[in-house]
Design brief:
Blueprint (H helix, E strand, L loop, with lengths): L3 H37 L5 H47 L16 H26 L1 H16 L3 E6 L4 E4 L1 H6 L20 H17 L10 E7 L6 E10 L6 E10 L1 H37 L5 H36 L3 E4 H9 L9 E6 L3 E4 L1 H19 L3 E9 L2 E9 L5 H8 L12 H7 L5 E5 L3 E10 L44 E8 L10 E10 L2 E11 L8 H7 L3 H4 L5 H12 L3 E4 L2 H10 L1 H4 L7 E3 H9 L7 H8 L11 H19 L7 H20 L1
Parallel strand pairs: 7-9, 13-16, 16-17
Antiparallel strand pairs: 1-2, 1-5, 3-4, 4-5, 6-8, 8-12, 9-10, 10-12, 11-12, 13-14, 14-15
Helix pairs in contact: 1-2, 2-3, 2-20, 7-8, 9-10, 18-20, 18-21, 19-20
Length: about 725
């Protein structure tokens, strides 16, 4: 493997040796001349010859050294810079032009290199434009598929055979964000988020069915259902696993799992079964008592008045108890029927707007929406059908065309009111309307059925001022929150929820042999109260973003504030913008770091000036019990290997070199710097490959060389 460090210094070393050879030749010539003069002119004093020769030698050495320094500064180093800039343009696709002052003493070479770089960038832009046009239709179709998966109200996850996630949708991300291995993400193991045994058992069943060929005649083919739980045990899941075959269907390469949350459904089923068992046992005892009493009466056995009275009381008590039990069963049956009907959360203003625009019978009716908006829990489609039917019937019965729709709330119940000028609808008339089928509802459902499904009623009464009202009580949505589903971090508009290239990735024997472009990284940054952890400075923020398959996953980020338990110095707040008020309600480091550790998993850690950030993470290992022993890469050291330690290697300088824009508001924030560092890392990996740095072991080796070089430089 070529040695990149030797490659960079070979050019300057060759020039140095060239000038050293000139100096050696000059010195030899001066020495030869002195020897010749000493032999040819013995009358010349030796001291004079030595003095003259020494002066000539030192003058030649000084002149040669000065010329070499100028040559190195004006030729050798500019050539290296031009080479690095051109290589960056070729391999990293940097959009910036080579600076004009680079290689100004190289004549036509520097302009020629700049023109070549510009031409290369223009050609690349043309190619990218053609590729973008050619793939626009594919992207459109892919976007439609992503939209379907993203908004599907069922969890969808695709995994490799070793349970590494290749695709997931938003519902799965929401439901499986409490696993012991961190939130759901690409290349994470699904068995860390869902109870592993049902998954492994289902996969074993399917692989055996496939290998035996039984799937061709099996009614479920290559699919199997299972019941499981999330890793934390908080949710019950009903899933279906389907095996994914390779292109020629000769081997299984992964599986897809779809699942629903059935926690409430299973709990309701258990409650129902227990209730039925209790009621059945109790009714059996009471029926036995009544049967025995009946036998006594049928035998007409002689008994005194007291015994006859006790028997009558027994029959009365047991009969009432049976009646109460039957009433309870009827109530439970109604509750189960209502609970089985799907209810959704709907905004009352939306519901009333739908009613006002319904006009199912073509009448020109006017409905003004009023009242404070509420979140309701109901089957909005059947409620709209019911109220629309009542509005049409009232319009004919009361000869009115103008209505008002209003919602109000009292305690835990919401009321949907239909108001009009006139008399209230008599109860018998309203009952008749409720018994009519709703044509566009499910099956032959009537208005009465809709009320039963919602466990409610409907009545009409009179208001003051000649106004009448039809009132429909509805349930208020419980704990509704009008915001996106909970997540550890906000998701990007189109987050990266899939990567099918991971199917074809070979598995190396060790992580050190893994290609840099195939590694999973967590690029992170920290913000602190100061720069000296040994003197009490603490974390105030930590953020990270994942890179999988050379893609920055902006939908998989970690961003957490940390309460340091001490005031943040104003000087530090001016840099990162985090104040005491912002961290007052934040979690302490003992709670934040375990979540970050779970987010990292078995990924490689990357940071810009990683030694600083790792020092802060290591500071808390005794308090948290965590050991951050993952491999660590430093973008400063990697950039130093590519561009040389003499170049500016700050994050801003590298971002400018690679054309990466860091928004001003994101600079010196943990998440903003982590995202910028992630983009820098991708560019560096592209530049390391032609230098022979292709695996993690290679990157660690050249990083260690950079560390050793910097230590030697500090000595001088």
């Amino acid at each position: 493997m070529p040695d990149g460090w030797a490659e960079r210094w070979n050019l300057r070393l060759r020039f140095f040796l060239f000038f050293a050879l000139i100096l050696l030749g000059t010195s030899a010539s001066i020495a030869g001349a002195m020897i010749y003069l000493a032999a040819a002119a013995p009358q010349v004093p030796v001291n004079a010859l030595v003095l003259g020769g020494g002066v000539a030698l030192f003058a030649s050495a000084g002149l040669t050294l000065w010329v070499w320094l100028k040559f190195d500064d004006h030729v050798a180093q500019p050539l290296m810079k031009l080479g690095a800039e051109l290589r960056a343009s070729v391999h990293a696709g940097t959009p910036r032009e080579i600076p004009q002052d680079t290689g100004r003493y190289l004549g036509l070479l520097a302009p020629a290199v700049r023109e070549a770089a510009v031409a290369l960038l223009e050609a690349r832009a043309d190619v990218e434009e053609m590729v973008a046009v050619a793939t626009a239709e594919a992207d459109r179709q892919k976007g439609q598929l992503e939209a379907v998966l993203r908004d599907l109200q069922q969890g969808v996850v695709i995994c490799t055979l070793d349970h590494k996630v290749l695709l997931y949708n938003r519902f799965a991300h929401h439901l499986l964000d409490q696993g012991r291995s961190g939130p759901l993400g690409l290349e994470r193991r699904l068995t860390g988020l869902v109870a592993g045994q049902p998954l492994r058992h289902s996969l074993e069943r399917l692989t055996r069915r496939f290998s035996s060929g039984r799937y061709r005649s099996h009614k479920d083919g290559l699919a199997a259902q299972f019941i499981g739980t999330t890793a934390c045990g908080h949710e019950s899941l009903r899933g279906r696993m389907s095996l994914i075959l390779g292109e020629e269907e000769r081997e299984a390469i992964g599986y897809v799992v779809t699942f629903d949350k059935v926690t409430d459904e299973l709990a309701a089923g258990i409650w129902r079964d227990r209730l039925l068992q209790d009621v059945t046992r109790d009714m059996r005892q009471r029926v036995a008592t009544l049967s025995l009493s009946g036998e006594v009466l049928l035998r007409k056995a002689p008994m005194d008045d007291a015994a006859r009275e006790r028997l009558r009381e027994t029959v009365d008590v047991e009969t009432r108890a049976l009646g109460e039990r039957l009433d309870r069963l009827d109530q439970v049956a109604g509750d189960l029927l209502a609970g089985a009907w799907p209810m959704t959360e709907v905004y009352s203003s939306t519901l009333m707007d739908c009613i006002a625009a319904r006009r199912s019978e073509g009448r020109e009716l006017s409905a003004v929406v009023m009242g404070d908006p509420l979140w309701l829990s109901c089957d909005s489609a059947t409620v709209v059908d019911l109220v629309d039917r009542m509005m049409n019937r009232i319009s004919v019965w009361a000869q009115v065309r103008d209505f008002r729709l209003s919602t109000s709330r009292r305690e835990g119940t919401a009321y949907l009111d239909l108001l009009w000028a006139g008399e209230p609808v008599p109860e018998p008339v309203l009952e008749g309307w409720l018994d009519e089928p709703l044509e566009e509802a499910l099956g032959a459902m009537t208005g009465r059925d809709v009320l039963s499904r919602h466990k409610t009623d409907m009545w009409s009464d009179i208001l003051g001022g000649g106004q009448a009202r039809l009132r429909l009580p509805l349930a208020v949505a419980v704990e509704h929150q009008d915001r996106p589903m909970k997540s550890t971090a906000p998701l990007a508009p189109r987050p990266e929820f899939y990567d099918f290239d991971l199917f074809a990735r070979p598995t190396p024997s060790t992580i050190g042999e893994t290609l840099l472009r195939n590694l999973s990284y967590v690029v992170f940054d920290t913000e602190t109260t100061g720069l000296e952890p040994s003197r009490g400075d603490d974390l105030v923020s930590v953020a990270g973003v994942r890179i999988v398959n050379d893609r920055v996953l902006r939908g998989e980020i970690f961003d957490g504030l940390v309460n340091p338990g001490r005031p943040i110095p104003p000087a530090s707040s001016r840099i990162h913008g985090i104040t005491d008020d912002m961290v007052a309600e934040a979690d302490p480091v003992e709670q934040v770091l375990p979540r970050f550790y779970a987010f990292i998993g078995d990924s490689v850690l990357v940071a810009h000036n990683a030694a600083f950030d790792m020092t802060f993470l290591s500071k808390y290992q005794e308090r948290t019990g965590l050991r951050f022993e993952q491999p660590v890469l430093d973008t400063v050291l990697l950039a130093g290997h590519i561009f040389g330690a003499s170049e500016s290697l700050t994050l801003d300088a590298l971002a400018e070199r690679f054309g990466i824009v860091i928004p001003v508001e994101d600079r010196h924030t943990a998440l903003g710097d982590a995202l910028a560092t992630a983009e820098v890392l991708r560019k560096l990996i592209a530049l390391l490959t032609p230098l022979g740095v292709v695996t993690l072991s290679d990157a660690i080796e050249v990083s260690n060389r950079q560390v050793a070089l910097r230590r030697r430089q500090r000595r001088y």
